[in-house]
Amino acid sequence: MDAASLKTLNRCRRERRAAVLLTDLESGASRVLVEGEAPEQPLREPVEKALRSGRSGTVEAGGRSYFLNVHLPPPRLVVIGAVHISQALAPMARIAGFDVRIVDPRTAFASPERFAGVRLQAVWPQEAFEESPLDAYTALAALTHDPKIDDPALTAALEAGCFYVGALGSRKTHAKRVERLTHSGLGAAAVARIHAPIGLAIGAASPAEIAVAILAQVIAALRSRGLEERGEAA
């Protein structure tokens, strides 16, 4: 790897941006393709697929062989609300490879005894995000049912371009949420990105089942980034 490529990859790592180190297996020439900077055809589709899956490997494109070495930021899951669902969701998400953080200003809920080994921030979401900003490789699940806590977190997640934004609540509750967020100045397209009721529709009833439904939806969103805008996501 040449010095310029290494410098670009290090910059992407610091900025939590995804990139692919593309190597022509015939000539040995390599270059870095940063996510968001569309590569030329016929490499566009295999590079985009590699960025979604996170898998490195050899591909054939335009009659040539390339090795794609994928560098993705570690995905994060920020859970707003130290509730029963969060107690089940946090360990599941960690097993799936997510860096998990739980934010809840209610110190009676956000206690180490209830969330052993999980990063807790017993502060308001705005304060938590100042310390660790949201980004495109962060998912946010708002679970408190309290608009004073959930709404600012949802707004921040939409403005930061989080790859997944979900909120707990019935359709009636979400309709009121949409009205509040729209009234606060968020555009209809941004508000429409919120997954609510949160989680895949699997008939989940218990906190653990709801956690499974949420995590499955988060993973689906992570692996379909970029397809939703083109109407190709499942």
From TrEMBL:
Source superkingdom: Bacteria
Pfam family, one: XdhC_C
InterPro entries: MoCofactor_Util/Proc, XdhC_Rossmann_dom
The XdhC Rossmann domain, residue ranges: 77-218
Record protein name field: XdhC family protein
Lineage summary: Bacteria, Pseudomonadati, Pseudomonadota, Alphaproteobacteria, Hyphomicrobiales
